[in-house]
Amino acid sequence: MNIAFQTELRPPLSTVYGPLDYMEFRAQLEEIDYLLQQSKAEEKLIIGLIEKIKKYADKIPYLRTAFRVQILLHLTNESCHKFACRLADSELFRWLTCVNTLGGVKTPSKSAIQRMAQPDSFIKEMNKLTIAMTQARCNRSGKKERKRIFRVMKGLLKKVEKHAHRYYDILDKDWLITDWTEKQPHQVMSRMSNVIEQIPSIIEIAHTRIISEKKADNADKILSLYEKNIHVIQRGKMNADVEFGNGLYLAEQADGIIVDWDFFKDKPSSDAKTVKDSIRRIKEIYCPESFTTDPGFNSKTNDKFLEDEKLFSATCPRNPEELCVKMKDEKFRNTQKRGAQTEGHIGIFKSKFIGKNITRKGFENRSSKILWSLLTHNVWVIARKALENKQNQVDDLIKTGSLMLGSLKSLRSSRLQ
User: Does pLDDT of 278 surpass 70?
Assistant: First the structure.
């Protein structure tokens, strides 16, 4: 299949003498545009998509804009509504996303989302009971108080359930007199049914834990009303002994580019068990020389596996005595130096590129969000490194020019003497 891939004509960016932060951000976006074109990554991705879905063959400009909008959206980490307004207003953003063409300007808009109003009084009352339940742990009669609060919460939850059933029946019966289309009420009713059907299980599990004082199995617990692939993750952290969600594994090069990742749909295994699969995936594309981790990934099995793969094992030992012995090795010390930056780097990736919370529903949609965040992160890192290299080259030229000028001045001075 022959696909003509041609970049649209874009008017040049206006010359703007703005503050330093703007000039650095603009230079970074210009470098990202250069990398996307010169590396052919954008072209290969779009052509690959067209080969799979033939109907996109005549929509190359739309696909290019959609690809770049996703990168810019994750780079700014703004809501779709705010980003749509900023895109329409910013010449720089329109230029990068290829909507600022000679044929005219048309930016994508944010579709309006209708939401049903929530019963604020019930939410406030339930929040008060939740706070009281937390504070009851500090009292001597904490068990009795928690049981009393739970019975109040149980009554309130059943009241909410009755209201939900009534609203469901009203909507099912009278949706024709509303302005909604046929699909909209069915979508709302399906969401209501999803929550209503889980209420008996929620009450039963809470009754088992609080009233009967028995432990509930993790498999029986309802951790989210909307996500079924959420798990209890116990990592033993100081400020978060137990967490809820999905495990995310990241592996990066020394320069900060993420080269491997895995988002676990099922309950993640221990860190030590993820090493082998990660090494196999990395070696399919790259030629690593060493593998550096924190103590959580260390095991004798992994050390033996890395030795068989002819990789230098820089996994930090859990045993302090073994660590003291390994620290005498200069190569091991050099590879472990960057370990202190890892947590900070992960924090930047989570806050800047993923965002505080992933608001997308469904594991596949959340996985797609992480994939876009990884792509944006790597493009951002490469562009930053390229700008640093260019600046270093300029500094070297200035330094060389200064030395040559100094030599010429000294030569001229000696001739005059």
Answer: yes
Q: Is 213 left (phi over 0), alpha (psi -120 to 50) or beta?
A: left
DSSP readout, 255-266?
A: TS-EEEEEE-SS
CA pseudo-torsion sign 229, 232, 236, 239: positive
Name the residue among 18, 130, 26, 23 with its Cα closest to residue 72. Answer: 26
Q: Per-residue pLDDT tens for 217-243?
A: 777 788 888 888 888 777 666 666 677
The whole-number average pLDDT for the span 133-140 is 78
The CA angle 72-356-250, to the nearest 5 degrees, is 75
Contact by Cβ (8 Å): 9, 102 = yes
Shortest CA distance to 276 belongs to which of 263, 260, 265? 260
Q: Above 60 in pLDDT, residue 102?
A: no
The structure tokens listed for 1 are 């299949």
CA angle 217, 222, 228 (to 5 degrees): 110
Going by their DSSP bridges, the two strands 248-252 and 258-263 should be labelled as antiparallel
What is the token pair recorded at 15?
């010359």
